[in-house]
Amino acid sequence: MFGLGELPKDYNKAVHGPYDPAIFYGKKDVPLSQVKVYQLPAWLARRNPSPVAMGRAVSRAYWRWNHKYVLPKKSGITPALQMVVGWSAFFYLLNYKTISHHTNAKYHW
User: Fold this and answer.
1) What mean pLDDT comes out for the span 16-40?
2) One-letter-per-residue 3-state SS of the chain
3) Which of 14, 41, 63, 101 has the most other CB atoms within 10 Å of its CB?
């Protein structure tokens, strides 16, 4: 239902081997870092804006982060620090309206 819990259509076990959630199995495209400014509208038009595709992109990003920082044997304290900084930034943005009123000012008029 809605593509949730299903393997991507372009995944083929005989070609790709075991499924890796951090890999995009669709048609290869030019990375954003190599797109020229005049090519940007066409590049954006080739993206899939559906909520399922966006959810899959977030899932791939999570699994790439997980494979790089959390799953190695000697991962260290890096993932914990990244989570603490991320949560701190998130709650700062949530409370920015109330925090911004507590500024030091020379004149209060």
Assistant:
1) 90
2) CCCCCCCCCCCCHHHHCCCCCCCCCCCCCCCHHHCCHHHHHHHHHCCCCCHHHHHHHHHHHHHHHHHHHHCCCCCCCHHHHHHHHHHHHHHHHHCHHHHCCCCCCCCCC
3) 63
